[in-house]
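Run log, item B.
One chain of 204 residues. Sequence copied directly from the ordering sheet:
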Amino acid sequence: MLLCDIGNSYAHLYDFKKSWREEIDFFLKKYKNHKIFYISVNNRITPYLKNRNWINLEKYINLNTNYKGMGIDRKAVCLAVEDGVIVDAGSAITVDIMEKKFHKGGFIIPGFKAIENAYMSISDRLKYTIDFNVDINKLPLKTSDAISYGAIKPIVLSIKDVAKNKKIFFTGGDGEKLSKYFDGSIYDENLVFKGMKKALKEIK
């Protein structure tokens, strides 16, 4: 049995020991005969998910929240944490607050790749890769550092503003790099699967 979080470009799989990613088309062929419990935000492949030995966990993921229009992957990540701030740093960066199993709300920021593309759309002279080793406590004196500082520091400050004294949990492709700006934070690449495992209990 596998758990799978299906995105737009990749399927993130978990066998209860380790996790890995597969390209969507390859995933659909290779795992068609496996027993899979999944969530998906990929509308393009919805027809291909039917009539298989696959079970959609969406209806079993019940997050206590007043938030409208929340993505199923985001709900699953939040379900994994009873109290704290959850930061999922992927294509977009979502920041959510959980208190006593209740989702109080959250916000969305463009991911770092989107920020890099935004700089490049302004000028070719701003074509730099964000450097997560930049010192965000020191005013930059060159353009490459200025871009990294400008991308990272506002995100760090916005998270700290809502975190107060709460524990912060990071996940997602850039989560580990972002977590180093927060003392005592936790990085867990499998946070979404912890939420999915809680949902599994609803159908057993």
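Observations after the first pass:
- The mean pLDDT is 94.
- Helices lie at 24-30, 72-79, 112-122, 143-163, 175-179, 191-200.
Flagged for discussion on Thursday.
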